[in-house]
Amino acid sequence: MSLLADYLGQLSNLYNDGIYYATWLEFFNSVVIHNLVFPNTAYNFLGFIELKVISLPS
Predict the structure, then answer these.
(1) pTM flag (> 0.85)
(2) Which of 18, 23, 25, 4 is nearest to 49 (CA)?
(3) pLDDT tens, position by position, 20-45
(4) Whole domain around residue 27: which residue ranges?
């Protein structure tokens, strides 16, 4: 078992909220560059999810 699999509890999907990038274009460019430089560990983009935020009363 790899360290990453152990850390993630055997999860195979990683999620990114884009917080480290000013725009989504920067994020996708980063993925493209990663895939070009590291083809053995290339990311596959599966799509978007929408989360409904529920505020708790104070």
Answers:
(1) no
(2) 18
(3) 888 889 988 999 999 999 999 898 88
(4) 18-49
Residue 12 belongs to some domain of the structure: no
Would residue 5 count as lying in a domain? no
Nearest to 14 by CA among 51, 39, 46, 50: 46
- Dist. CA 13–CA 10, nearest whole Å: 9
CA distance 55 to 20: 24
**Residue 17 token pair:** 């909220």
3-state secondary structure string across the chain: CCHHHHHHCCCCCCCCCCCCCCCHHHHHHHHHHHHHHCHHHCCCCCCCCCCCCCCCCC
